[in-house]
Design a protein that fits this description.
81 residues, mainly alpha, 434 Repressor (Amino-terminal Domain), 5 helices, globular
Length: 81
């Protein structure tokens, strides 16, 4: 999730965080001060959060004790066992 010292948010991480928070795309958009379409674009992998949005996602993740793990992460772990 990190590149150097900066957090990198891909589509799976954004989606997993939103679900962890129990928010709709509209709800997360309101929390971040962006449009719902922006959240949708992130979750589809069209764009990645950057700048202030990336920082806010990282702060929200830390404060909500978000333990990043998507279905893909679980599948990789199970395949290696």
């Amino acid at each position: 999730m990190e590149r150097g010292r900066r957090k990198v948010w891909d589509k799976e991480k954004v989606h997993a965080l939103r679900k962890h928070l129990g928010l709709s795309q509209v709800g997360l958009a309101q929390e971040l001060g962006v449009r719902q379409q922006t959240i949708s674009d992130w979750e589809q992998g069209i764009y990645q959060p950057r700048g202030a949005s990336s920082t806010l996602l990282s702060i929200i993740a830390e404060r909500s004790e978000f333990g990043y793990e998507t279905q893909k992460s679980k599948e990789k772990e199970n395949a290696s066992n």
